[in-house]
Write a structure and sequence with these properties.
three-stranded antiparallel beta sheet; alpha+beta; globular; five-stranded antiparallel beta sheet
Length: 305
């Protein structure tokens, strides 16, 4: 891709290539850009030392694009029809889930700039595995034991309301200070077992809260749209998740050529055996998904072998 075809580049220095949450956040930012400003032909790639994601566009976005993005996402979360949430948690009954999908289909016909987002999300939230009642199995990215005990959708809505335009930009540029906020358990640094503390972790001492960047967790949530969940004879399976008994890993590639949303969706859903240099992949990271203290966490990433 020549410089003349992509005159504007936004380095996302606040995101790391070896962090599963940051990878999801980069994809989420690309998804929102693509929906809000399709004429910009947004693409994503990795560059620099240390290596970080870069968002490129055919033309520079509007000067206050961060304000517009936050405003539209918050309007979307506050929409009277609640197109992105069927309750507080992802796991629900088939009937309620079908009703939510139908609502998303109706919202798709609206004039909201993010009208297409709910259907993309519902393809990734969970998968209906039967027609005779029961619960819908949630995405492999859910973060509690049983994958429904924590209120993911409620937490995401609250996170969306907590971000502002200036902090979003500072976070993407790596200049924001982390704060105590809702957690999605997608950042490996959030796992802090009692052995690494000098006190009882259940005491909730002031100042001991896990601190992170809410804006990145919001974007990571929208990054789920690249990882659909499908029904199989063994239950719901989420793309990007690879089972190597007794462990499960989330696996993601790093590439240096600017790719659009459709190209990335095709690339990252390939099996692990296909993610190699023949596909323009520089390297592949993976992070183990494990359970501890009644929550699911991601372990520090390693280069996939």
């Amino acid at each position: 891709m020549s410089v003349t075809e992509n005159p504007y580049e936004l380095p996302l220095r606040g995101l790391r290539e070896d962090n599963p949450r940051d990878f999801l956040a980069a994809l989420g930012l690309l998804r929102i850009f693509d929906l809000l400003w399709p004429d910009l032909d947004a693409k994503l790639f990795w560059a620099g030392n240390p290596c970080a994601p870069v968002l490129s566009t055919l033309h520079p976005p509007c000067g206050d694009w961060n304000r517009v993005l936050v405003e539209k996402v918050q309007q979307f979360a506050d929409h009277p029809t609640k197109p992105m949430a069927h309750g507080d948690i992802i796991k629900t009954s088939h009937s309620q889930y079908r009703e939510a999908v139908e609502n998303a289909c109706h919202f798709k016909e609206s004039e909201h700039p993010l009208a297409g987002l709910p259907l993309l999300l519902y393809a990734c939230y969970s998968s209906q595995l039967g027609e005779d009642g029961g619960d819908v199995e949630p995405t492999g990215f859910s973060f509690a034991n049983g994958q429904s005990g924590k209120k993911l959708l409620l937490d995401v809505v609250q996170l969306i309301h907590s971000i502002d335009a200036e902090t979003l930009l500072q976070t993407l540029e790596g200049e924001a200070i982390p704060v105590a906020a809702k957690s999605l358990r997608w950042n490996p640094s959030e796992f802090r077992p009692a052995a690494y503390r000098s006190h009882d972790p259940g005491s909730k001492l002031k100042g001991d809260e896990t601190k992170d960047h809410p804006a990145l967790n919001v974007l990571a949530f929208f990054g789920l749209t690249f990882f659909p969940t499908s029904p199989t004879r063994f239950g719901g399976k989420t793309s990007g998740m690879h089972d190597e008994r007794p462990n499960r890993y989330f696996q993601w590639p790093i590439w240096a050529t600017p790719l659009c949303v459709d190209e990335i969706a095709t690339l990252i859903c390939a099996s692990s055996t296909h993610l190699n240099t023949a596909y323009g992949i520089d390297r592949v990271w993976r992070s183990r998904r494990f359970s501890s203290d009644k929550s699911l966490y991601f372990a520090p990433a390693e280069i996939a072998r």
